[in-house]
Every structure is written in structure tokens, then in C-alpha cells.
Design a protein that fits this description.
Preprotein translocase SecY subunit; 17 helices; two-stranded antiparallel ribbon; disordered C terminus
């Protein structure tokens, strides 16, 4: 406890770090306030009653978790930051397949990043309009949720603008946190939404278990949750080191340079190099059937298969979700890890991997090793993504089950580690002790966080 208090005092002593943390907290508070401002023309009481009667395994409940309850409350931030995430995903995939976007990302430097940012923002507006239309259709299907005295055209026109403005404002808040706060802004907005639903979910599960006389089962749940979080942290930070050797390297300052022949170093290949992005990718695609179902419901009843993809506990949903996560893990790892660049860098530094010839052989070796390392990482991500459905099948409250895996857990672990690493770096630069007694906190340095670079 004394160590914690001393660390907190050290954090408060650093003016820049203190200001960044306070700025981040203010922005997050503004975002949470917007999650309670209801759209004009919506009957909150009727909407709440209609939502309570909806199936608990509806995937819309998962969307509500990411928006911190704003989705079910028909708030101005009902769509949250998700349209921006979807736009970022599309642009990043275009960077993998379209030469123009490859050139912007790899060769044009800062000017290219600015163009990509503008394209992402415009695409966010378009996606928000589409998703906003589906959301307003969803509200109209809820009995009594929309005041009948309001003109449908006025309701649609005004609220489409408000939802779009809410998403753009949320995107701006995220960018401000990244620039002037601590941590990745977009990631933190999603994280704060997830955390906002945790206390109620936790309390509901505790009450239900004690009322049913399941005190032992509650302890067992917490034990399982502890080990799942532990395994997630290990995989997020897991690294496969490729040893490299320098034939000749100059060390020291000019005038005192000494060749360090045979010096050893390593290339770190992360087991989960893609971070949380594959699940974000897959989740964004799995949200599409929900939007389609809302549009289809205006003219008739959606098909059984389409409805099953709107149920996050259904077998078809989880099979497709698992496959998408595995595929996107390989795709995103290919975007981040470029064996050719590694091989060229080693050649320029007069370094080599022991037992491997420089050039194409080194490139092939790194590519093969990356593929092998990615396999267990992709399978783990796939299992984590469907773990909430497995946990819920054992009788755990649906809202609490979401924290046993899936996007919620990966985002929480990755964002917390990344933010703590930034705080620790400030402490170490000012000669203070870090947040842990030994070693260093490893975040996602060198990896793209959610929306990073967009």
C-alpha cells in the first residue's frame, strides 16, 4: 500500500503527466455525459421497457456494451466510436490491397498519413449515415419508443444529423486524448464504455448467484475469470526472440568508436502481433447482419440464418466469428510484420541471423517463423472471441459473461497495459521507480492500437 501511495505521489509531481491524466479524465467524463443525452422524439420509458423485453442474447446487447449503454438509451452517442473503427479497418485493408493506399502509408510519410486521416474521416461520415439509418429503423420497430406526434421525416432528418455529429464529436475527443492526454484516445473511449457496464453486470451476477445459493459457483467464476485474464496478458505480451549477430558495429561517441564484433541482439516477434484488431475486424463484419436485418424488417421478416447471426450465442455466429478472427489475425500480422524490410534492415546494419544466409534466405526464415508463431496466437484469439458464449452456456449472466473473453477482455487488457506503459515511461524518465518492483510493463509499443495512425 505504501508503494502504491508513493507511486501516486510521484505521478502527481510530474506536471506534464499530471496535466495529461487530468485532461484525459475530463474528456472521458464529457463522453460519458453524452451517453445519457437522449435523441429528440424518443420516449425513454417506452424504449427501456421494449429493450427489457428483447432477447438477452441479441447481439445488439453487445453493441450496447461497447457504447457504455448509450445504444439502448438512444443517446446522441448511440453509435459511439464504432463507425470510425469500421472506417479505419476499411482503410487499413485498402492499404494492403490497393497500390494508391500502399503508397500513402509507406512512402509519403506525414503527408500520406494526413491524406489517410482525411479519407478515414469522410468514410466515417458515410458509414455513420448508413448505420444511423439502420439504428433509427430499429427505434421505429420498438413499440412506443418514438413519439407518434412527431413527423417521421423530421425525426429521421434531425436524428441522422445528430447521430453523425455525435460520432464525429466522439472521434474528435479520441484524437484530442491521443494528442494531449495519456494513452490512445479511440481505445480509451471504447474501454470506458465497456467499464461503465461492468459494475451493474457484476452486481447482477453476485445477487443472482447468492439468491440461488450458488456461492461456490461464484467463487469458481472469479477463479476462471482470473486465469482467463492471466492467459490473455501472457499472450498479449508473449514474444518469440530471433537472435541476430552483428559482424561489426561501432559503439561509443565520435572519437572513441570501437568495433563491437560479434555483438548479439534479437528481433522480437510477438505471439499476438496484431493485438486486438482481428477481433475488432471480425466484430465489425458481424455487426453487418444486424444492420441488414433492421433494414429488411421494414419490408418483412428476416431469414432464420440472418437472425441467427444476430444472436451472439448461436452456433453459426460463433463458428463464423472464430474463422474470421483467425483469418484477420494472419492478414493484420502480414500488414504489420514485413520480412523483406527486416532482411533489408539486417543487411544495412551488417547483421545476420546465425545459421541463415543474408538476403532472401533471411526473409524466408522470418516469414516462416512469423507464420508459425501467429498460428497459436490466432487460435487463442479465436477461442477468446467465442469464450463469452461458452461461459454463458453454463448459466452465467449474459452481461457478465462478456467480460470473460471476446473484444471486451482483449480491449481492456491491451489498453490498460498500453496506458500503464506510457505512465511508467514518464516515471522512469524522471528517475522515479516504475509501477512494478521488477521488470518493465510491456504495452503495445511498435504495434498499432485501435485507430492508431488514422
Amino acid at each position: 500500500m505504501n508503494k502504491f501511495i508513493e507511486t501516486f505521489k510521484n505521478i502527481w509531481k510530474i506536471d506534464e503527466l499530471r496535466n495529461r491524466i487530468l485532461f484525459t479524465l475530463v474528456i472521458l467524463a464529457i463522453y460519458r455525459v453524452g451517453s445519457f443525452i437522449v435523441l429528440p422524439g424518443v420516449n425513454s420509458a417506452a424504449l427501456e421497457n421494449a429493450v427489457s423485453q428483447r432477447g438477452s442474447n441479441d447481439i445488439l446487447g453487445l453493441i450496447n456494451t461497447f457504447t457504455g449503454g448509450a445504444f439502448n438509451q438512444a443517446a446522441i452517442f448511440a453509435l459511439g466510436i464504432m463507425p470510425y473503427i469500421t472506417a479505419s479497418i476499411i482503410v487499413q485493408l485498402l492499404g494492403f490491397a490497393v497500390p494508391y493506399f500502399q503508397k500513402l502509408q509507406q512512402k509519403e510519410g506525414e503527408s500520406g498519413r494526413k491524406k489517410i486521416t482525411q479519407i478515414t474521416r469522410l468514410l466515417t461520415v458515410f458509414i455513420t449515415l448508413v448505420q444511423g439509418g439502420g439504428y433509427l429503423t430499429y427505434l421505429n420497430t420498438m413499440p412506443g419508443a418514438v413519439h407518434q406526434s412527431l413527423s417521421p421525416s423530421i425525426f429521421w432528418f434531425s436524428n441522422i444529423i445528430i447521430l453523425s455529429a455525435g460520432t464525429i464529436f466522439a472521434m474528435w475527443l479520441g484524437e484530442k486524448i491521443t494528442d494531449r492526454g495519456i494513452g490512445n484516445g479511440v481505445s480509451l473511449l471504447i474501454t470506458i464504455g465497456i467499464i461503465a457496464t461492468l459494475p451493474r453486470s457484476f452486481a447482477t451476477e453476485v445477487i443472482s448467484q447468492f439468491n440461488g445459493g450458488g456461492g461456490f459457483l461464484l467463487i469458481l467464476e472469479f477463479a476462471v475469470l482470473f486465469f482467463v485474464v492471466l492467459a490473455t496478458v501472457l499472450v498479449v505480451q508473449g514474444v518469440r526472440r530471433i537472435p541476430i549477430q552483428f559482424a561489426k558495429r561501432m559503439v561509443g561517441r565520435t572519437g572513441a568508436n570501437m568495433p563491437a564484433a560479434g555483438a548479439r541482439d534479437y528481433i522480437p516477434l510477438k505471439v499476438n502481433a496484431s493485438g486486438v484488431m482481428p477481433i475488432i475486424f471480425a466484430q465489425a463484419i458481424m455487426f453487418l447482419p444486424v444492420t441488414i436485418a433492421q433494414w429488411v424488417s421494414r419490408g418483412g421478416t428476416p431469414g432464420n440464418f440472418l437472425m441467427s447471426l444476430s444472436d451472439w450465442k448461436s452456433i453459426p455466429y460463433n463458428i463464423i466469428f472464430f474463422i474470421l478472427v483467425v483469418i484477420f489475425t494472419y492478414v493484420y500480422t502480414a500488414l504489420l510484420v514485413n520480412p523483406q524490410q527486416y532482411a533489408e534492415y539486417l543487411k544495412r546494419q551488417n547483421a545476420f541471423i546465425p545459421g541463415i544466409k543474408p538476403g532472401s534466405m533471411t526473409q524466408e526464415f522470418i516469414d516462416t517463423l512469423t507464420t508459425r508463431v501467429t498460428l497459436p496466437g490466432s487460435i487463442f484469439l479465436g477461442l477468446i472471441s467465442i469464450l463469452p458464449a461458452i461461459i454463458a452456456a453454463f448459466g452465467v449472466n449474459d452481461a457478465f459473461a462478456l467480460f470473460f473473453g471476446g473484444t471486451s477482455l482483449l480491449i481492456l487488457v491491451a489498453v490498460v497495459l498500453d496506458t500503464l506503459q506510457q505512465i511508467e515511461s514518464y516515471l522512469l524518465m524522471r528517475k522515479y521507480d516504475g509501477l512494478v518492483k521488477s521488470g518493465r510493463i510491456k504495452g503495445r509499443s511498435g504495434m498499432q492500437t485501435i485507430g492508431a495512425g488514422m
